[in-house]
Amino acid sequence: MRRVSRIAVAGVATAALAVTVSACGSSSSESAGQGKNLGLALAYDVGGKGDQSFNDAATAGLEKADKEFGYKSTAVEPQDGESDADKVQRLETLAKQGYNPVIGVGFAYAPAVKEVAAKYPKTTFGIVDDDTIKAKNVADLVFHEEQASYLAGVAAAKATKSNVVGFIGGVDVPLIHKFEAGFKQGVQDTKKGVTVKSQYLTETAAEGGFSSPDKGENAANGQIDAGADIIYAAAGLSGQGVIKAASTHKIWAIGVDSDQYKQAALAKYKDAIFTSAMKDVAGAVYNLAKSVKDGKPETGEVRASLATGGVSLSDSNPAFKNNAEVQAAVKKAEEAIKNGTIKVKTS
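The chain above was modelled as a monomer; its predicted structure follows.
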């Protein structure tokens, strides 16, 4: 992937594979060889810590576990242009050092988690956003992203004045298709005649689709020029560029994964963030760590939904929270999804 400057945040240094890993804990030299469980370890996805979205949500879960359990957990940044072999080496290093669970943050870790979990059957592994690994010591931490995205579509349809809204996906992959599908369905079910313009920034993560705010900003500017007055971005760090463009042009952006209205790095743009389609990555990470500590590790598919509270819409922006029409429509749709009246598409 291509590392770029981040909006309003300092860049995070890339950590080496088998040397110091210090995002939240001790170095490898300090922790190696200890017999007790040091805590959990995160291997970050594209964008790394400071994305104000997906990876930072995972970090919040780690920090909560550390505070409650007295752990000295750690987190490792991704490498530029890394291979699956690099990911395997990273996960093996963390498992050897005594971290448990070891969590790959993002579907790109699937091959590595599958391989390393087989070598370390006494360690619990987790992978966020992948449900393909079937192993006794692996928890697939997944979400009904399409459900929160549907609610985002409902909100967008109710709030648009131009009857043109946009969706920007970071990378053209099945996971992000779920966000797009739910959003489109929510818009179309709520208000006929609203056009949804969809765009993906790149075909592969290596091209920077999840890590390039400039790409997000350029794509958003194009959609705004085409009439969009609300844009929903599921693009990791690139989504910061979408939010910046929305603020510049005085339109609405819809954030993703975390409550981006509350993110310090986005404070200067927060008035443009209408709501965020959230998924509780922090909760999933914390719950896995707690299950290991309690001696009953979660394994298999662990999928969060509206019904479990694992996905939701944020209401931090007063413009969203105090809009009675939007609130009523969102609440009605949420109940219909929960009781099965509405079936949300995933593609």
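The two ends are 26 Å apart (CA to CA).
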